[in-house]
Amino acid sequence: MADTAPQGQQTPDPAPAAPAASSAEVRAAKFNAANMVRSLLPLTVLVLLVVGLTSLRQNPEDPIRTVETTSSTQLAAARASYPLLVPQGLPEDWRATSIETDAGDAVDEGDPVTLQIGWFTPGEEYAGYVVSDDEGSDALTDVLAGATEQDAVDIDGRTWERLTTTREETAYRLDAGDGVTAVVTGSADDGELETLAAAVSVYEAD
Question: In the CATH hierarchy, which fold is given to the domain comprising 70-202?
Answer without folding.
Answer: Phosphorylase Kinase; domain 1 (3.30.200)
